[in-house]
Amino acid sequence: MLFSNSYTTNPVLIVNLQVGKGRDVGLNQIALFEGKVSGGNGEQVLSRDVYRLGQLFDFFRMMSFYFTTVGYYFCTMVCPVMCKLFYVV
After folding, report:
1. How high is the pLDDT of residue 61?
2. Tens digit of each residue's pLDDT (9 = 90 or more) over 41-77
3. CA of residue 25 relative to chain centroid, distance
4. Cα–chain center distance at 13
5. Based on the structure, what is the number of domains in the chain?
6. pLDDT of residue 26
7. pTM surpassing 0.85?
8. Which helix (H) or strand (E) holds 15?
9. How far does Cα 42 stand from its chain's mean position?
10. Which of 22, 24, 32, 55 has the most CB atoms in a 10 Å sphere around its CB?
11. DSSP conformation class of 3
12. In sequence order, what are the beta bridge partners of 3?
């Protein structure tokens, strides 16, 4: 929401609503987007730049970098696997 910057004598706030174009947001489109993002993260992790960055980061920056790239997908995979493992055992 954008608020108007015009000066009025009326103390009522003038609100301009902006809406975007309607797009298909089906489950298939979301899955394709997630696949594209995860594929990009996989390619990023394989590069030498990440290795060089890892040598320069301190521990907390490294953990932040890990959990915003491949660590997110790893933890997302481990959680259901552990739930199934605990259910079986």
Report:
1. 93
2. 888 888 888 888 889 999 999 999 888 888 888 888 8
3. 17
4. 34
5. 1
6. 82
7. no
8. strand 15-16
9. 15
10. 32
11. E
12. 15
Token pair in block for residue 70: 């491949």
Taking alpha carbons only, the member of 66, 70, 65, 75 closest to residue 37 is: 70
Structure confidence at residue 85 as a pLDDT band (50, 70, 90): very high
- In total, the chain counts a number of residues equal to 89
What are 57's two structure tokens? 């980061």
Between CA 54 and CA 52 the distance in angstroms is: 5
Bridge partners of 87? none
Structure tokens that stand for 89 in this block: 């055992």
- Give, in order, the Cα–Cα distances in Å from 59 to each of 53, 55, 68: 12, 10, 14
- Find tokens 């960055």 and name the residue: 53
Q: Which amino acid is at 38?
A: S
Longest dimension (CA), the chain: 71
With beta carbons less than 8 A apart as the criterion, state whether 1 and 17 touch: yes
Q: Could you read off the pLDDT of 12-26 as tens digits, one per residue?
A: 556 666 666 767 778
